[in-house]
Amino acid sequence: MSSLAPSNQTIRVAVIGVGLVGAEFVDQLLALATPNPFRIVSLSSSKNALLGLDGLSFTEGWRSDLWKSGKKPGSFADLAKELSKLVVPNQKVVLVDNTANEAVAASYPLFLKAGINVITPNKKAFSGDLRLYDEILSASAASGARFLNESTVGAGLPIISTLKDLVMTGDTVHKIEGVFSGTMSYIFNEFSPAQGTGPAFSSVVRIAREKGYTEPHPADDLNGADVGRKLTILSRYIPALRTALPSGYKSVSTRSLVPGELENTESGDEFIEKLPAFDEQFDKMRKEASAEDKVLRFVGVVDVKNGVIKADLEKYPNTHPFATSLGGSDNIIMFHTERYGARPLIVQGAGAGAAVTAMGVMSDLLKLV
Ligand SMILES: NC(=O)C1=CN([C@@H]2O[C@H](COP(=O)(O)OP(=O)(O)OC[C@H]3O[C@@H](n4cnc5c(N)ncnc54)[C@H](OP(=O)(O)O)[C@@H]3O)[C@@H](O)[C@H]2O)C=CC1
Ligand SMILES: N[C@@H](CC=O)C(=O)O
Ligand code: NA
User: Fold this and answer.
1) Which parts of the chain have pLDDT scores under 70?
2) What ipTM describes this predicted complex?
3) Where is the Aspartate/homoserine dehydrogenase NAD-binding domain (predicted)?
4) Does 57 share its domain with 178?
5) 12 membership: H or E segment, kind and range
6) Is 230 designated active site?
7) Is residue 143 assigned to a domain?
8) Of the listed 92, 124, 230, 310, which one is catalytic?
9) Which of the residues 84, 109, 151, 267 has an alpha carbon 20 to 30 A from that of 207?
10) What does pTM read for this prediction?
């Protein structure tokens, strides 16, 4: 394989978060063909950290070395200070945040101001308060450091890059609609198939979690917040809607599927344990849809013309593409624009899972080479 970068260009990478996606990302990065342009200079979980500004070399493999490091992660300010020593002309430094953590997300302006690029599948910074989003934009504009977040919507699928391309080439987006949650897609493809019957709702949710599709807490998928966050992220790339959601996903009209009694469940494990008690109510919804020859699908809509941004559980005829063409954790996203008028531009494929999400993060990283 040919080399990815001129040999004098080394990109230093600091990785925060080595859970499902993070661990796969580190494996994908280390497996790149030589000469590998990337050097990991910092690696941290919430409990352990490794730092080596010349590039970490692993003796027993990165997992074991990190586990045995005996060092706790320092503050984000300290990390930004250390990494900023590496920011010199023609050398890039990148923070890769593979957590779902709000505090890490809130620190992006700090890193960007210091000239450190930020790449992440973490939706928090781009789908919350508009103030943080604006701080990120200004910090990036001031230093020239970039932030790339392709995996925040549709995992590795080219959703954000497609939308940016449409907008930047002067197309007008009228509506974006589709199935945006890999978890919800998997759950309803299995629970409410075109033939009408399927397994119990709680068992499908448990399997979605085991497959690595869900957020760390599955309620964050089932309450529609994950779709609301993705709709917020996309809306902010559309000029007419840039400031439409000042408090982010909380302003998106969203239907929650979390039973009221489970709303304050602390852990994902406890949530999964208690969910079977509510199987009957989901079964009733499935039967109602099936009686009309319809399936249930959880969809999101950004309707620019009518100013509607919503996430809801809808019924679709058994013959609709959402009923017949989706499988596994597939996302399907349709862009209706001025240029794609009669027939929308459609992107479809796996929208969750460690391999495809880490691939989206890797492909953002490769954009810096
Ligand atoms: N899974 C998927 O299909 C997709 C995931 N994403 C996004 O990717 C991100 C990661 O998801 P996923 O890997 O599934 O989640 P995991 O829960 O498996 O991993 C998250 C990791 O973040 C670590 N972490 C949390 N806080 C900190 C901190 N302050 N410093 C260092 N590490 C920290 C946790 O470490 P510890 O274990 O030590 O607590 C945990 O291992 C999320 O933002 C998610 O929304 C996006 C698209 C698809
Ligand atoms: N939990 C999310 C993961 C990707 O963002 C989903 O199911 O889509
Ligand atoms: Na994507």
Assistant:
1) 1-8
2) 0.98
3) 17-148
4) no
5) strand 11-16
6) yes
7) yes
8) 230
9) 151
10) 0.95
